Every structure is written in C-alpha cells, then in structure tokens.
Amino acid sequence: MISVVIPAYNEELAIGDDLRAVQAAMDGAGLEYEIIVVDDGSTDRTAEIARGFPNVRVISHPHNRGTGAARTTGVKAARGDIIVMTDADGTYPNHDMPRLIAALEGYDMVIGARKKEAGTLKWLRTPAKTFIRLLASYLTATKIPDLNSGFRAFRKAPVMRFLNVLPATHSWVSTITIAFLTNGYTVNFIPIDYYPRKGRSTFHPLRDTYNYLTLVVRAIVYFNPLKVFLPISLFLLLFGGGKAIYDIITYNWHFAPSTVTLILTGVQVGALGMLADLIVKRLNGPQGGEGE
Ligand SMILES: Nc1nc2c(ncn2[C@@H]2O[C@H](COP(=O)(O)OP(=O)(O)O)[C@@H](O)[C@H]2O)c(=O)[nH]1
Ligand SMILES: [Mg+2]
C-alpha cells in the first residue's frame, strides 16, 4: 500500500491539477494507494477543492504550522508502508510517480533530483543551494544531486525514528535526507523535470538561505558531529603546532599565549566532538538495516 502525502498551503490554483495527475499516474500503473492532503491552515479554497476528490483524505491544521509540520502530520496518518511526497504547487512531474516508486526497489528512499532550478530568484538560489548541497555531500560522504527536492518516496518505518527531530519548516526534506545518509540507510536519486510554481512563492531569499545553511550544519552536528568538530579541531591543532615551532625558533622555547590558546582550544573542540559523537551513537542506536 502506498500513501501519497501532499502538504498544501493556499494552493487553490494548482492542487486540482496535481491531484488529477497523481490519480491518473497511480491508476494507470495499477498501484494500490491512498492520497492524504495535509491542509496547513490554508485561507483559500485549497481544502474545499481537495475534498471534492472522492478518494482523497484531507487533514486540516487549525492554523498554519509550516510545510515540515504538514509533512510530519501526513507521515503519521499514512496507512501505507511506502510514502510518496509531492508539492501541491504544480512544480513536480506527478505523472512520473510510478517511475519514482519503481526506483525505490532495494533502497530506503528515492529522491527526484531536479535537472534545473525553476524557482524564483535563480541567481541567488542556485549558488546558495550548490554550496549547501556540496557541504552536505562532504559531510555525509555521499554525492547528493538534490538535497531538498519535495518529490520523493521512502519507507515509513525508518522515518518514524526521526520524526521527533524533523523541523516544522522547509528544512524537513533536507534533514530527513541527511538523517538517512548518516544513519546507514540507502538513498537513490533519479533525474526529474521541475516546472515553475503556480501561485505565489513564499521563498525569502536571505532568511531562507541562512536557515538552510544553519540547518545543514545543525543536522550534521545532530547526526554525525565528528564530521564538523574534527576538521575544526585538526585545523586549530595544526595552526597551533606551527605557531609553537615558530615560537621555539624565534623566542627560544617561550610560547606565546596565543599558541597555547590555539592548541588547548583544538584539544577541547576535539574532545567535545568525541563526546557529541558518543551521545549521538547512544541516542540513535543501531544503524539502518542493523537489528531491524
Ligand atoms: N511555503 C509554505 N508552503 C507550505 C506551508 N505549509 C505547507 N506548505 C506546502 O509545502 C509545499 C512546499 O512548499 P513550497 O513553498 O512550494 O516550497 P519550495 O517548493 O521549497 O519552494 C507546497 O505544496 C506548499 O503548499 C507553509 O507554511 N509555507
Ligand atoms: Mg514547491
């Protein structure tokens, strides 16, 4: 059984076409499925339009709580053991949903990687997203072609482990990607088209880019702290060590306070990293696949 979860906030312009496209694709592929639209406190006709579809379950938040909160509500309500997510703004190729589901075979998650950026303010989004995507690829030791695509399919069981740490904001999708990649779950990527949004985008360039960057670092610290702490500690120790050699030669074995500070801070950051790593390992328990 497959549960299609669609978070929706004031999407009266697009939700009807999106629901028709999902139904046509899933019926066409002969798949057994349910559709859950999570209306996140919309003030337009989004919920009313969705209720017009007989086999669509509409769950309404009394007020707007954020796309992440809507996704968590949808996951909890899902009856299927496979969950597919798409937006309600006309941007994702819902006709491609059967291909996405087929690509889940042998994986815990499959993400539709957008071939091109179609969002607003491309000149800002593209470099910012590339930098953050490369940072996440380094920190997860995985090549990530698209970190925050909203068009994805995954198994419900592993996601339930992380529901309590997933944010209520846009960063839900990026965080779950990093959570899977740093906890031994397998993630597949398939290329997809991406269309301009119908209706108004709520993307705030500086605020959302800053949030996005802090998110990636926070998620890594949460799931794999050594990846952040160790490079910082090594940098401080190397720099301190170099300075110590300089002090030995220049000041005849008298170490400047800055040298001592550098080395001590390096040791402390390293120790903090080890401690954080130990806590995370204890908290997160066995990696994906082990003991499940
Ligand atoms: N922007 C926004 N979208 C929300 C919210 N709650 C649910 N959504 C839905 O979450 C999906 C993703 O949001 P969107 O603004 O398209 O983000 P983007 O695709 O990352 O630019 C869309 O289907 C929205 O309708 C919310 O509070 N804000
Ligand atoms: Mg969207």
Features:
binds guanosine-5'-diphosphate; Spore Coat Polysaccharide Biosynthesis Protein SpsA, Chain A; 292 residues; binds magnesium ion; alpha/beta; 13% strand; single chain; 7 strands; 7-stranded mixed sheet
The CATH class of the largest domain turns out to be Alpha Beta
**Which class of secondary structure composition applies to the elements?**
alpha/beta
Average predicted confidence as pLDDT: 89
Query: Which strand-content bin applies to the residues?
Result: 5-15%
| Helix count, DSSP H or I runs of 4 or more residues | 10
What's the number of extended β-strand segments? 7
Question: Can you give a write-up of this model?
Answer:
α2 links the parallel β2 and β3. The longest helix is centred in the last third of the chain and has 28 residues. This protein has 292 residues and is of the alpha/beta class. Helices cover 49% and strands 13% of the residues. The protein starts with a strand and ends in an 8-residue tail after the last helix. α5 runs parallel beside α8 and α7 packs parallel to α8. The chain has two domains: 222 residues, Spore Coat Polysaccharide Biosynthesis Protein SpsA, Chain A (Alpha-Beta Complex), CATH 3.90.550.10; 59 residues. Guanosine-5'-diphosphate binds next to β1 and α3.
